[in-house]
Amino acid sequence: MKLESLEGQRAALDASEVSSVELVESALVRAEGAGADLGAIVGLRAEAALAAAAGSDARRRAGELRSPLEGAPVVLKDNMVQKGEPTTCASRILESFVSPYDGAMAERLEAAGAIILGRANMDEFAMGSTTENSTFGPARNPWDTSRTTGGSSGGSAVAVSAGITGFSLGSDTGGSIRQPASFCGVVGMKPTYGRVSRWGLVAFASSLDQIGPFTHSAREAAWVLEAIAGHDPRDSTSLPEPAPALESALTGDVKGLRIGLPREYFVDQGAEPGVVEAVRGAVSELESAGAKVVEVALPHTPYVVSTYYLVATAEASSNLARFDGVRYGRRAENVKDLDEMYRRSRSEGFGREVKRRILLGTYVLSAGYFDAYYRKAQQVRTLVRGDFDRAFEACDVIVGPTYPEVAFPIGARMDDPVSLYLGDIYTVSANLAGLPGISVPCGQHQGMPVGMQILGRPLDEATLLRVADAFQRRTDHHEHRPPGSP
Amino acid sequence: MSDNPLDRYEPVIGLEVHTHLKTESKLFSPAPVRYGDAPNHDVHPIDLGMPGVLPVLNEKVIGLAIRLGLATHSTVNTRSVFARKNYFYPDLPKGYQISQYEEPVVSDGWIEIEVPVKGSGKKRGAETVTKRIGVTRAHLEEDAGKSIHDVALSASEGTHIDLNRAGVPLLEIVSEPDLRSSVEASAYLRALRSILRYIEVSDADMEKGQFRCDANVSLRLRGSSEFGTRTEIKNLNSFANVEGAIEAEIVRQSEILDDGGEIQQATMGFDVNRQRTRILRLKENADDYRYFDDPDLIPLLIDEELIEVVRADLPELPEQKRERFEQEYGLPGETTAILVTSRRLADFFENCARACNAPKAAANWIARDLRQELNERNLAVDETRLEPDALASLIRLVEEGRLTTKSARELLPELVEAGGDPQAMMEERGLEAVSDTGMIDEWVTTVIGGNAAAVESVRGGDDKPLNFLMGQVMKAAGGKANPGEVRKRLVEMIRGDG
Question: What's the predicted TM-score (pTM) here?
Answer without folding.
Answer: 0.91
